[in-house]
Amino acid sequence: MADRPKKKSWAEPFKIKVVEPIRMTTREQRLDYIKEAGYNTFLLRSRDVYIDLLTDSGTSAMSDNQWAGMMVGDEAYAGSENFYHLEEAVRKYYGYKWIVPTHQGRAAEHIISQLMIKKGDYIPGNMYFTTTRLHQELAGGGFVDVIIDEAHDPENEHPFKANIDLNKLEDLIKKVGPEKVPYVSMATAVNMAGGQPISLSNLKQVRALTQKYGIPIIHDATRVAENAYLIKEREEGYADKPLADIVREICDLTDGCTMSAKKDCLVNIGGFLAVNDEELYKKAQNMVVVYEGLHTYGGMAGRDMEAVARGLAESVEFDHIKARVGQVQYLGEKLRGWGVPIIVPIGTHGVFLDAKRFLPHLDQDQFPAQALAAAIYIESGVRSMERGNVSAGRDPETGENRKPKLELVRLTVPRRVYTQAHMDVTAEAILEVFDNRDRVKGLHFVYEPEYLRFFQARFEEID
Ligand SMILES: *Cc1c(COP(=O)(O)O)cnc(C)c1O
Question: How far apart are CA 407 and CA 390, in angstroms?
């Protein structure tokens, strides 16, 4: 007789109403496809992918309520009803006063960076995000990583690896002067660290410190609900607090946010900038007209804004987020149990394979994470993403590869899209690659774009 389960299983708090068939391919086909794609999973065609774990961005399944909202899109050029619904939802759940819609997160980053950063400024943040840092640099600023050291160690079990190191932050402020620090760039559920949360106690300390110097905090709220869930699970005093209240408490400690609604807000496209300062809002409202569209749609259709408003409300429901993070944890626990090297603790939106330990025979300048993502695709048709030396890009000063400490492959789980069986198949495929890992070869560039090179770079195998 099989062992009785040690803990009670949970199940998804939804049933499936519409399905999309997916296509299985042969190993020979996939070898051709990945070569054609220059060993870059971003350049594969979606039809050639079996289980798509490239990203959780814009890949979520919308609810029936969101789809119903699409039908009441008010496509007026100005003053769309759906804009006011979105504004209401952001005010209610996040508490920010003024909202500027944008077509996605990076557009909000562009606007806030241009408005707040002067040439020669420094922007401290809890690890970088690719588009966030680029917009800060394009505005003339320099990003400074002030995340705790533990975040750069894939084996460290710190429960809040997105915490900010207060000493690093204060040292920077003292060194360059508070007038050269326009804001602190604080992300929740830090993507590049492996979907790791910041604690409320740390955020409160950051708030106290920055208030002393008159420096605001701009929140990358892309995964704020997922971060709130881990606070509820892990931080003392929050177990009985409603998830929505924790989300609100985080936002209330900050002065504004940029949002990629394509993640937590459960939509396929959308984003916004939200601020509490009315003067800043007016400037942002003026700028959005130049780059995105009028300030009551900012690059989104009315129907898309309605879907964001409804998705935002769904994102702070406990049952949803428990199942969402639970599915990621399920995949991670399975791999960890088999000894596959992953980032611990397991994060919120994906499982991150540690390519340095997975492929110790490759030098970091042979792009082990890029090579591993390609090998996983060849083996199984599962698509993942490199988050390592290719994503980190080159240092603008020296022109050298940045060689980040973390050299990762991200298996990102879209929200409400795949079942537990898909997670099982994925885990078994990774194990297969792990068993044959010494066969994976390194890569070198054959084409390297100037900006955000990971999206479009092409590689060949090194013999
Ligand atoms: C996706 C993402 C962004 C950028 O948002 P887009 O909608 O892709 O432009 C910014 N920050 C984080 C943490 C993200 O995950």
Answer: 9
What does the pLDDT read at residue 463? 85
- Report the predicted TM-score, pTM, of the whole model to 2 decimal places: 0.94
Residue 209 has pLDDT above 80, yes or no: yes
Residues catalogued as catalytic: 77, 129-130, 220, 263, 387, 454
Tokens 């790791």 belong to 196
Q: Report the separation in Å between the CA atom of 5 and the middle of ligand 1, taken as the mean of its atom positions.
A: 38
Q: Are strands 142-145 and 98-102 parallel, antiparallel or unpaired?
A: unpaired
222 with 278, same domain: the answer is yes
Confidence of residue 35 (pLDDT cuts 50, 70, 90): very high
Show the ligand 1 pocket: residues with CB < 6 angstroms. Answer: 57, 104-106, 129, 131-132, 187, 191, 220, 222, 260, 262-263, 271
pLDDT in tens, 101-128: 999 999 999 999 999 999 999 999 999 8
Pairing outcome for strands 458-461 and 256-260: unpaired
User: What is the distance between the alpha carbons of residues 68 and 56, in angstroms, rounded to a whole number?
Assistant: 22
d(CA 246, CA 94) in angstroms, rounded, equals 10
Using the atom order of ligand 1, give the atom closest to the CA of residue 108.
Answer: 9
Tokens read off for 230? 């881990």
* Residue 393 and residue 423 share a domain: yes
Give 134's Cβ-side CA count (13 Å radius): 15
Rounded percentage of the chain residues whose pLDDT exceeds 90: 95
> Do 234 and 187 belong to one domain?
yes
List the domain range (segments joined by +) for residue 124. Answer: 64-315
